[in-house]
Design brief:
The chain has one domain. It has 17 helices and no strands. It is 75% helix and 0% strand.
């Protein structure tokens, strides 16, 4: 089937008004609950906003990685739906704003931010050249600047190509994406170590960055799949085939297994070495009510998605893909909760309205940013020279 611009409805930018209202409603409700939560318990609220901060970072940064990956790999099948990931990557502009309240709550969140405590603990004192507030802020600002720079370079060229139809823009994006790959690997590791692993400054894991990377790509793929299925149901992607859905489902299934492999590897290596400074982190999560959360994480993040996406038909069924994508996003949020919240409450699980306030606001932010971006940009990269081959893609 040849590419038909009218058939794809790429110029339809106005989503249902109810979707826009849903986004603003969730954001308003979430912000209201967040404000109240800071008056009730500032420390608990700070940890909760950190969970949502890392969750939104996963979707935004992971989406930009998927865009860059297409250019580097020369992928064809994903070209018609690449714009979806470009839309989600705009979340990167919100991430620095969310970091502001976290900066003012550093003493509540990070044990190592107290200089008097660091002086009294030799283990922390030896790490102070890296774990100190000024250097932490510098690293964070550099990461934000680098991510936004590559977003502007890559996505701007992609959008410009809609008008110019210049293939040289694709060549430039391939070069920018090749540079972005190692930069992405370094910066996502820095973000994972700084914002999550340093919550327990005595503990360390050499593959913690890879662990967060696995969850990040899952979150980005799940978000893209939800949007693609939504577009198909609304009649915007009428030229897409089951082969495109299967590719998304296969990637989701692959990264579900990759996440489980990295998670098990991290646990196995620490269990086998049996070093006190490493085992304490897992012991905390294997005591009291946190043990239930740890077991639930295995089921929620691996077992259910594994069997839910195992068969070939399930990877091509829009309804199944939509359900499993929403489930995977929830599983990733649950994983971040498991990573972060035990530091706040060592005695047991804390779960109340505060824990729901921040995800509600986060979902609202994602919906608003996506709809606003899609309102002003073609939902299909019509100037990309690979588009026709992408539409004709067959497995």
């Amino acid at each position: 089937m040849s590419f038909n611009q009218e058939n794809l409805n790429y110029r339809i930018k106005e989503f249902p008004r109810s979707l826009n209202l849903l986004g603003w409603g969730l954001l308003a409700l979430g912000v209201l609950l967040i404000v109240v939560s800071f008056f009730v318990d500032r420390t608990r609220s700070s940890f909760n906003i950190l969970v949502s901060f890392m969750f939104l970072m996963s979707i935004g940064l992971g989406s930009l990685f998927l865009v860059a990956l297409e250019y580097v790999a020369g992928a064809v099948w994903s070209t018609p739906i690449r714009r979806v990931s470009e839309f989600f990557s705009t979340i990167l502009f919100v991430i620095p704003l969310l970091a502001i309240p976290l900066y003012f709550s550093m003493h509540e969140i990070f044990h190592w931010s107290h200089t008097e405590i660091v002086r009294q603990e030799p283990a922390l004192s030896s790490k102070s050249p890296y774990l100190n507030v000024p250097f932490f802020v510098i690293r964070t600002l550099v990461c934000f600047a680098v991510w936004l720079l590559f977003y502007l370079l890559i996505v701007r060229n992609s959008e410009k190509q809609d008008k110019l139809k210049d293939q040289a823009l694709t060549t430039r994006n391939i070069r920018f994406s090749a540079i972005f790959m190692p930069v992405f690997a370094i910066t996502i590791t820095l973000a994972a170590v700084d914002w999550m692993m340093s919550l327990e400054p005595h503990w360390f894991s050499t593959i913690f960055g890879v662990y967060y990377f696995a969850g990040t790509i899952l979150a980005a793929l799940a978000s893209a799949t939800i949007a693609v299925v939504f577009f198909i149901k609304r009649g915007y992607f009428t030229n897409l085939r089951e082969d495109h859905l299967y590719s998304l489902g296969a990637l989701l299934f692959a990264f579900v297994n990759f996440w489980a492999y990295i998670a098990f590897s991290q646990y196995l290596l620490i269990w086998y070495a049996n070093l006190p400074e490493e085992t304490t982190w897992f012991l905390l999560r294997w005591q009291g009510s946190w043990k239930i959360v740890s077991i639930a994480l295995i089921v929620i993040h691996f077992v259910i998605p594994y069997f839910g996406l195992l068969s070939q038909p399930s990877k091509m069924n829009p309804g199944r893909l939509l359900f499993m994508s929403v489930w995977i996003l929830f599983a990733h949020l649950f994983d971040l909760y498991w990573l972060i919240m035990p530091t706040f409450s060592r005695r047991g699980v804390v779960l109340g309205w505060m824990e729901f306030a921040f995800p509600i606001a986060a979902v609202g932010i994602v919906i608003i940013l996506f709809t606003l971006k899609a309102k002003n940009t073609n939902i299909v990269p019509i100037g990309d020279p690979k588009l026709q081959r992408g539409l004709d893609f067959r497995l």
